[in-house]
């Protein structure tokens, strides 16, 4: 076999191999949040992907389905399969796809602002402030932060909206 034939054979083998894995992969949605000074617990577990226009801050994050859970026994949150908005350092505006149940009404959370060690959540006409300590862990669909060992039921939404 000639040297040229061997080189052609080796070239063909290398073309069929998958590309090498690199250590520099795109950050997860949770890592992206942290790069804008937000804790990862602002999003529930289960984000399957996201899109970000770095020049404008416009983003979309994706879940497989609607995700609902209760926090602190009195707040019920719901995330739609697509969550969108505009993110910048310490601020998420034009938020869509996240709502909170207040008394008997579901209100859309439209803005989240980090103010020191607090996160301020706005529904437009009112806002509430919570310690950032409450958001270091991402809640799970169905059970929030109180999932215990019942992992099978943790992915079930509390309600379908």
TrEMBL record:
* Pfam families (alphabetical): DUF538
Say which domain of life the source belongs to: Eukaryota
Q: Where is the signal peptide?
A: 1-24
InterPro entries, A to Z: At5g01610-like (IPR036758), DUF538 (IPR007493)
Keyword Acetylation in record: no
Q: Which UniProt keywords apply?
A: Signal
Residues that span the membrane, as ranges: none
Tell me which PANTHER family the record gives.
F22D16.19 PROTEIN, T31J12.3 PROTEIN-RELATED
Q: What is this protein called?
A: DUF538 domain-containing protein
Question: Which lineage?
Answer: Eukaryota, Viridiplantae, Streptophyta, Embryophyta, Tracheophyta
